[in-house]
Design goal:
Layout: H1 12-22, E1 32-41, E2 48-54, E3 65-66, E4 69-71, E5 83-84, H2 88-95, H3 99-117, E6 122-124, H4 139-149, H5 155-162, E7 164-167, E8 171-178, E9 187-195, E10 209-216, H6 217-225, H7 233-242, H8 248-255, E11 267-269, E12 275-277, H9 284-287
Parallel strand pairs: 1-9, 5-7
Antiparallel strand pairs: 1-2, 1-4, 2-3, 2-10, 6-7, 8-9, 11-12
Length: about 290
């Protein structure tokens, strides 16, 4: 299956639908807040990224390759969650939201990464030596992961029982995307970056994915260009951007300087006719000369 990559020409019926929303003839669906994590490790070809292929039966983005992530759960707002690293207020200034939402987004990012990859961005309390969990492959960890995924266990209780804290300093801010107004299912998604902790390894555990893979970001883009990998525009553009860096450390260093603004793609004209979805200004130079494959 060949899928055009950004800039994607929109079908006429979608353009008309976009006009109806723009003119106020339709009311957009209220988006759900979500967090996703670009999980990185080194490779000879540059930063390698962990991708999950969503089950084709999934209502949203079925068959697409995505990063670990998902919607914010009400319990992600728990102010009692064990925390180490930048404060919620610091995260709020970088994420462009209030403190309460920042706390929930960071918690959701860590929780969803563990649920969908088995990687846990947490470690012992500083008075117990600090550090990062080195191995999460045991049966007891898997039982906790399943309980988190089913919402039988909250992140706060999980960390408290194990004497752990969220290592929020292991995360970096990367981007923020809001699904276009004409989509029937919408998400307001903040993108984080994180390096695979030493000693940990990913596992194919997510019930929402049919397969997983580590792939250099540049290879993922090339595979999508050939129509052999399905990436939604934000995932494609993010992978293209990450591919410009030499290694995960460089990506995280860049993330340390970021303050994100939410980008909502809108319909805009293509030079040769037709319409496409808008791209954040800072990503437009990466697309020049690439075109649709």
């Amino acid at each position: 299956m060949r899928v055009p990559v950004p800039p994607v020409a929109l079908p006429d019926q979608l353009v008309e639908l976009a006009r109806e929303y723009a003119d106020g003839r339709r009311e957009p669906v209220e988006p759900r807040n979500a967090a996703t994590v670009i999980l990185l490790r080194p490779s000879p070809e540059g930063p390698a990224v962990y991708y999950l292929r969503r089950q084709r039966s999934m209502e949203f983005a079925g068959g697409m390759c995505v990063y670990p992530g998902g919607g914010v759960d009400p319990r992600d707002f728990d102010q009692d969650v064990a925390w180490a690293g930048p404060s919620p207020a610091e995260w709020a200034s970088r994420l462009g939201c209030d403190d309460e939402m920042a706390r929930a987004l960071v918690c959701a990012a860590v929780r969803e990464t563990f649920e969908e990859s088995g990687v846990l961005l947490a470690g012992p309390h500083a008075d117990s030596g600090g550090g990062v969990v080195a191995d999460t492959t045991g049966d007891d960890w898997e039982a906790d992961r399943v309980a988190l995924e089913s919402r039988e266990l909250s992140m706060t209780d999980f960390l408290t029982r194990r004497g752990l804290v969220l290592r929020t300093d292991l995360l970096g801010v990367w981007a923020a995307w809001l699904t276009p107004v004409f989509e029937p299912r919408r998400f307001r998604t903040w993108f984080f970056v994180a390096a695979l902790p030493e000693g940990q390894r990913t596992r194919d555990v997510s019930s929402e994915s049919s397969e997983v893979t580590w792939l250099p970001a540049a290879d993922a883009v090339a595979t999508a260009d050939r129509g052999e990998m399905l990436l939604m525009p934000p995932t494609y553009l993010t992978s293209l951007e990450v591919a410009q860096y030499a290694d995960p450390a460089a990506v995280l260093a860049a993330a340390g300087e970021r303050r994100v603004e939410m980008h909502t793609p809108t319909a805009e004209p293509l030079p040769g006719g037709g319409w496409t979805l808008s791209v954040p200004p800072h990503l437009q130079p990466l697309l020049r000369g690439r075109g649709s494959k």
